[in-house]
Amino acid sequence: MKTFTLSLILCLASLAAFADTPTSDQVMADAKAKAAADQKTIFVHFGASWCHWCHKLDDFLDQPEIKPVFDKYFVSVKLVVTEDEPHKALENAGADKFLEKLGGPQGIPYCAFLNADGSLIINSKRPTDANPEGQNIGYPGEAEEVDWFLKMLKKAAPGMAADDLKKIETALRAPAKTAKP
What we know:
Number of domains: 1
Distance between the termini: 52 Å
Structural class: alpha+beta
Strand order of the largest sheet: 2-1-3-4
Largest sheet: 4 strands, mixed
Order of helices and strands: HHEHHEHEEEEHH
Oligomer: single chain
CATH architecture: 3-Layer(aba) Sandwich
Strand content: 5-15%
Number of helices: 7
Number of strands: 6
CATH superfamily: Glutaredoxin
């Protein structure tokens, strides 16, 4: 009986978690309304709780010198996809289909910039001679990935001030900080 009760409680908790997680359509409807009202572009990125590079992108976007820049030009949206079984409740229903619509999945994190109506401006698939369709840059940690991310920013926010773009570039190109013993 205790096992049944515990199972029932876990099941109900899972259902409650699903009920609390908005669908991708709900998240994007809010983002579109805000982007239209504020005359901004939407920055959407897809990630999962288990993804190291997704956390790295989240940390980058939350840096005190980066967050105000993104907030000035973009309505930022994170959609959760491809969660492992214990964390499925974190996923935004429909986000996987939306990811496909925007050119993914090719791994996460995956990013795209959209107009206020939700139409694609540019995504994180960097074309190369070997792959003209493009390959997802994920977190822009390598020089060519940073170059593509900067190109994405310029296309998504052509009016971005040069010093704001430089802050982003400097933060991305900074060598990784290592902890001192």
